Amino acid sequence: MVLASGAGTRVGAELNKVYLPVAGRRVVAWSLAAFAAVAEVGVLVLVIRPQDAELADEVLAAHPGPVEIVPGGATRQASELNALRHLASRIADGSVDAVLLHDAARPLASPELIADVLARTREHGGAVPGLAADDVVAVTGGETVSARVPGAIRVQTPQGFRAQPLLAAYEQADAEGFLGTDTASCMERFSALPVRWVPGGAENLKITYPHDLLVAERLLRR
């Protein structure tokens, strides 16, 4: 599941940042290509804003394989739930056993990382990639730096979870009006699945600000 239904206003562009050009392709095209290169990925879903439909069609016209389009919701979690409901019948019959959720604004996720997250998800129930965050410190009293936070990581995407518990957790969150910060936070609240840490990649950056596009351009051309 590639999530492209945000606006990305901080990058300062007039259109959704995932459709900006970088290294000869639109940003989201790089993410789709990485997932398409993983043989174990059976269904590829692109979640979009309705107003981006023409841009999405342009991207998919150049993509070699099938991609299913799902309209996004008012929030990231609502967008993910729309996509999970789109897959619900295949989740119920077991043909979709695991779901990976990925930010379209991370065009440098490698097929190797995607395959690793998927394998760990199938083995343990959930997996997230991340980088050790040795520079994270705790703050007390609002202003005083106290100590480093041991074991902290900077979480990336794709985040993977077994499909049936994931859909059940999202339906329960929707019924209770719970809005999590990301997929993992929703699963922590409504599921007992263990989530494993997979070493992420330093290059798996998320395009948020204009300079991120320049860095991604250089890395992708390399």
Keywords:
about 220 residues, eight-stranded mixed beta sheet, two-stranded antiparallel ribbon, 12 strands, about 35% helix, globular
Tell me about this structure.
Helix 3 (76-86) crosses helix 6 (163-176) and helix 6 (163-176) crosses helix 7. The protein is of the alpha/beta class and 222 residues long. Strands 1, 4, 5, 6, 7, 10, 11 and 12 form an 8-stranded mixed beta sheet that branches. It has a two-stranded antiparallel ribbon with strand order 2-3. 37% of the residues lie in helices and 22% in strands. The longest helix is centred in the middle third of the chain and has 14 residues, at 111-124. It contains 8 helices and 12 strands.
Shape: globular
Structural class: alpha/beta
Radius of gyration: 17 Å
Beta percentage is 15-25%
Instruction: Please trace the helix and strand order, writing H or E for each element.
Output: EEEHEHEHHEHEEEEEHHEH
Question: What kind of sheet is the major sheet?
Answer: 8 strands, mixed
Helix % is 25-40%
Mean pLDDT over all positions: 92
Q: Give the distance, in angstroms, between the N- and C-terminal Cα atoms.
A: 26 Å
Q: State the total count of DSSP E strands.
A: 12
Number of helices: 8
In short:
The protein is α/β, with parallel strands linked by helices. It has helices at 27-36, 53-61, 76-86, 88-92, 111-124, 163-176, 183-190, 210-221, and strands at residues 2-4, 21-22, 25-26, 45-48, 68-71, 98-103, 126-132, 137-140, 144-148, 153-155, 159-162, 196-199.
